[in-house]
């Protein structure tokens, strides 16, 4: 058990938390936050796991750096889409989900 | 009742997902790594043209990833702009006219521009580089927009399009030129490595900042009149 | 020993802020907690000997994402999200 491994395991738990939020929350912005948390978890696993044995490893670090920039671009695009959706429909969650939550046929 | 059951099922699914993930991480951590990447990298650092390993990986050894990444960013930027509601991406009445923010940004904007330049320059031999500089540049743009500085280059016109695709185009040109020159795709000629990386990094910084800024300003800003306020 | 304490506290803080960002009752507060999560991630990257990612995370994760989401919240949430589509506060 080393410190990077600890962070990798924390990343796994963050993935679970993010997945739960993505499934359970219905407000679109909250889903976006959950998505970002899940992404952070993946990045932690990606950097923590290779550094468990070898010490500092620039290759996964560079990949994660690329990933962070792509993630912010995706987030920004999602915000644009959500605001457009809100503008057109007045809703902040995908239709069908919140309304059917009370008596959802499972 | 059904909702509780559904939530419980979701919790169970997510906990088991986390558990399996953690278990596989634990298993993988116990096995020896098949290749020693850091060692491989430090052996090849001499011919990368830069001293900082992360920059070397990003712009030389794994530059294909970076090329595709800037391509993804350009596509996201184009998609964002095409979603924009206003014809001009910059609308005077939508700005915050906060005098504190206005006073603050007269100090902040030059400082942040300098920081972006420093980060870009520092990328060759210490932490820093195109991505961080691009992010700081985009943040400067966001601050300027919130403070109400007119930014003509954000009108959907030649300048905006040029700024969006500049990084991708230059990167692609370098890549194709190296193919025509007889090398592999994206293999820089050894004597030109350093200047090429510098040029690519500068245009990447500009393009990343432009894409993020365009995505920020192209969010439809005037609200819907909340037609279905209570429904959903 | 101190380092283990620091790492452990950081990991716990990361998990707690992540959960709080998702379970928070108020959307605005959720975004603010998420910004705090981004800053903690930056510290975690420093602990993982990745100063490049820490720089990017501090500029992007805490700065740009925060501005984007807060801006969206202020436009979307002018009528605060209704109780039912909030998705929740605790199970």
Describe this structure in words.
The complex is a heterotrimer of chains A (106), B (232) and C (91). Chain A has helices spanning 3-24, 28-48, 51-54, 58-89. Chain A is elongated, with a radius of gyration of 17 Å. In chain A, helix 2 (28-48) packs antiparallel against helix 4. In chain A, 75% of the residues lie in helices and 0% in strands. By secondary structure, chain A is mainly alpha-helical. Chain B folds into two domains: 1-31; 37-217, no CATH class. Helix content of chain B is 67%, strand content 0%. Chain B has helices spanning 2-30, 37-44, 53-61, 63-83, 99-122, 130-146, 158-180, 193-217. In chain B, helix 6 runs parallel beside helix 8 (193-217) and helix 7 packs antiparallel against helix 8 (193-217). Chain C is mainly alpha-helical and 91 residues long. Chain C is 76% helix and 0% strand. Chains in contact: A-B, A-C, B-C. At the A-B interface, helix 1, helix 3 and helix 4 of A face helix 1, helix 2, helix 3, helix 4 and helix 6 of B.
Short précis:
The complex is a heterotrimer of chains A (106), B (232) and C (91). With 232 residues, chain B is mainly α.
Largest sheet of chain B: none
In N-to-C order, the SSE pattern of chain B is HHHHHHHH
- The oligomeric status of these chains comes to heterotrimer
The overall pLDDT of chain B, averaged over residues, is 80
Radius of gyration of chain B: 23 Å
In angstroms, what separates the terminal alpha carbons of chain B?
Answer: 22 Å
Strand content of chain C: under 5%
Instruction: Please identify the structural class of chain B as seen in this structure.
Output: mainly alpha
Shape of chain C: flat
Which regions of chain C contain 5 or more consecutive residues with pLDDT less than 50? 79-91
Count of separate structural domains of chain B: 2
Q: What string gives the helices and strands of chain C in order? A: HHH
């Amino acid at each position: 058990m080393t410190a990077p491994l600890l962070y990798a395991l924390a990343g796994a738990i963050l993935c679970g938390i993010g997945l739960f939020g993505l499934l359970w929350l219905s407000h679109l912005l909250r889903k976006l936050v959950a998505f970002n948390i899940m992404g952070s978890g993946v990045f932690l696993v990606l950097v923590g796991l290779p550094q468990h044995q070898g010490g500092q490893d620039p290759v996964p670090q560079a990949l994660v750096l690329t990933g962070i920039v792509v993630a912010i671009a995706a987030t920004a695009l999602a915000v644009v889409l959500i605001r457009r959706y809100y503008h057109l429909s007045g809703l902040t969650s995908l239709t069908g989900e919140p309304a059917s939550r009370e008596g959802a046929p499972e | 009742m059904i909702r509780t059951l559904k939530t419980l099922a979701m919790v169970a699914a997510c906990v088991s997902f986390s558990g399996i993930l953690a278990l596989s991480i634990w298993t993988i951590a116990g096995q020896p790594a098949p290749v020693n990447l850091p060692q491989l990298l430090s052996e090849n650092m001499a011919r990368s043209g830069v001293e900082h390993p992360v920059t070397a990986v990003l712009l030389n050894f794994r530059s294909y990833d970076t090329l595709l990444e800037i391509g993804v960013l350009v596509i996201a930027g184009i998609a964002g702009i095409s979603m924009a509601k206003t014809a001009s991406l910059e609308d005077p009445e939508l700005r915050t006219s906060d005098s504190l923010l206005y006073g603050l940004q007269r100090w902040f904007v030059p400082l942040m521009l300098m920081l972006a330049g420093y980060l870009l320059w520092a990328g060759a031999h210490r932490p820093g580089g195109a991505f961080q500089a691009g992010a700081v540049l985009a943040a400067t743009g966001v601050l300027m927009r919130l403070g109400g500085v007119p930014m003509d280059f954000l009108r959907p016109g030649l300048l905006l399009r040029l700024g969006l695709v500049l990084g991708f185009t230059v990167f692609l040109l370098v890549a194709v030129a190296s193919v025509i020159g007889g090398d592999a795709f994206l293999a820089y000629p050894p004597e030109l490595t350093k200047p090429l990386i510098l040029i690519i990094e500068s245009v990447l910084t500009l393009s990343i900042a432009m894409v993020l800024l365009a995505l920020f300003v192209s969010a439809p800003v005037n609200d819907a009149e909340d037609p279905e306020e209570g429904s959903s | 020993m101190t380092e283990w304490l620091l790492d452990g506290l950081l990991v716990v803080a990361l998990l707690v802020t992540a959960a709080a960002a998702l379970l928070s009752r108020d959307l605005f507060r959720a975004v603010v907690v998420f910004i705090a999560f981004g800053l903690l991630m930056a510290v975690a990257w420093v602990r993982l000997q990745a100063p490049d990612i820490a720089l990017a995370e501090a500029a992007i994760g805490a700065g740009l994402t925060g501005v984007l989401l807060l801006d969206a919240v202020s436009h979307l949430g002018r009528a605060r999200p209704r109780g039912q589509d909030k998705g929740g506060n605790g199970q």
